[in-house]
Design the sequence.
């Protein structure tokens, strides 16, 4: 056999073994004995190092297929074996409610309690060290009549300078990018940590913009009422459906009391 | 109280702290951690703890990892399963729970690993794309599934701990109808 044909044959065997492994195909589809019969004369004919390595890779691939055949037999003989097609058929024929019921009846949630860890204490210490003093934050306790809360329109916020005249969506996407960079590997962060800024005005502005990030499908917001935590997670892609169409037309009022902001205790 | 009893109760208290309080990214503790804290007879203490907490509807779940028994993870889980009507209490929506059932059942039927695209295709028969993406991301974060090389999805640590795989598949195939209820009816109520 010529060198080119030998090389092609080896690459075909390697490719076949990879496909079986990566796509989870039935490993018995590969006739391992026949493949070895095909490969065995190659060893005498191999002329260069590259072909030798390909031969090794092909043999390793076939050994991997044999290993998968062992797993396949174990799985099929276990109580858990189900034909994927049968499972798909059942999944399609059951309603959402029944599927959820099945899940709940197979579910035994873990019971665990959060506690303060040395890492948590370090994080708190860093926060405390970086927290500007009341003086630096320009806190003068105001007296006088409190204004009643009212709805703020986009125009009035533009007028007050809370948001800039730049295209609103550009500002949103900039904030979305900032959040994605800020969450790191965790993929989420505390809402209060994200909106917190050096001035009260900036904090309110960030909260206002964040509410649009949630409504416009850039960010997922989760409230844990027991732990009193609000978590935000940037999504990889913007969800194009409006919130109402997503069946999640919930309105979540979150107040930002100025006195608590002064004390650096938002969300706490 | 005898000295021996005091020692046992002290170890039971320590085991309770180790298993209930989360100290790592995952809750629970490994065999070697328990051995270090409770001594060589740690398995007996864990069994005693299991008996005690079963009285209040909890149990110790062992999840072996590898051949070494000291690598086994121990967790505390609910002994029974919460009813569907309480899904929201646990922070779950009914459709999210259904998506989890489909995802896990499909991965299980494919020998514990399935390409993400295939799982998404199966789910897209019933659920919108945005909901599938959001939930798969969430399941990965929570540990119900994990994503490996070449976009393959596997069962995650939490599924190993919390999900009774045999019950899930049996119920799915209608083999176990013993306590079957009209799930839709229960939802309506």
Sequence:
């Amino acid at each position: 056999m010529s060198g080119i044909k030998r090389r092609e044959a080896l690459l075909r065997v390697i490719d076949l073994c990879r496909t079986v492994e990566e796509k989870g195909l039935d490993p018995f589809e590969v006739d391992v004995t026949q493949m070895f019969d095909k490969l065995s004369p190659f060893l005498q004919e191999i002329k260069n190092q590259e072909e030798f390595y390909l031969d090794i890779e092909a043999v390793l691939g076939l050994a991997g297929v044999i290993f998968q055949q062992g797993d396949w037999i174990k799985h099929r003989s276990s109580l858990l074996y189900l034909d994927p097609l049968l499972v798909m058929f059942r999944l399609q024929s059951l309603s959402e409610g029944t599927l959820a019921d099945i899940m709940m009846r197979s579910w035994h949630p873990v019971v665990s309690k959060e506690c303060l860890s040395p890492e948590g204490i370090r994080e708190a210490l860093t926060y405390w060290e970086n927290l500007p003093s009341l003086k630096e934050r320009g806190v003068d306790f105001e007296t006088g009549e409190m204004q009643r809360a009212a709805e703020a329109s986009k125009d009035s916020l533009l007028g007050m300078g809370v948001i800039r005249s730049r295209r609103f969506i550009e500002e949103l996407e900039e904030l979305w990018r900032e959040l994605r960079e800020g969450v790191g590997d965790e993929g989420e962060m505390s809402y209060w940590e994200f909106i917190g800024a050096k001035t009260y005005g900036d904090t309110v502005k960030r909260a206002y913009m964040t509410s649009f990030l949630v409504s416009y499908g850039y960010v997922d917001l989760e409230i844990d009422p027991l732990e009193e935590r609000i978590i935000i997670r940037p999504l990889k892609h913007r969800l194009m459906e409006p919130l109402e169409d997503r069946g999640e037309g919930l309105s979540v009022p979150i107040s930002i009391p100025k006195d608590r902001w002064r004390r650096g205790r938002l969300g706490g | 109280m005898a000295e021996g009893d005091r020692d046992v109760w002290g170890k039971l208290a320590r085991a309770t702290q180790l298993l209930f309080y989360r100290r790592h990214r995952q809750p629970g503790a490994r065999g070697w951690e328990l051995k270090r804290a409770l001594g060589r007879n740690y398995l007996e203490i864990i069994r005693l703890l299991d008996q005690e907490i079963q009285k209040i509807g909890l149990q110790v779940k062992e999840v072996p990892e590898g051949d070494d028994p000291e690598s086994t993870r121990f967790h505390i889980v609910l002994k029974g399963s919460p009813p569907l009507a309480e899904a929201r209490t646990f922070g779950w929506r009914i459709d999210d729970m259904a998506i989890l059932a489909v995802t896990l059942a499909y991965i299980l039927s494919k020998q514990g690993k399935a390409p993400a695209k295939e799982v998404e295709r199966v789910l897209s028969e019933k659920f919108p794309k945005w909901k599938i993406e959001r939930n798969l991301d969430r399941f990965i974060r929570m540990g119900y599934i994990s994503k490996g090389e070449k976009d393959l999805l596997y069962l995650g640590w939490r599924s190993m701990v919390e999900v009774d795989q045999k019950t899930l598949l049996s119920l799915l195939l209608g083999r176990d109808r013993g306590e079957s209820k009209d799930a839709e009816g229960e939802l309506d109520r």
Q: What stands out?
A: Residues 24 and 101 of chain B are 27 Å apart (CA to CA).
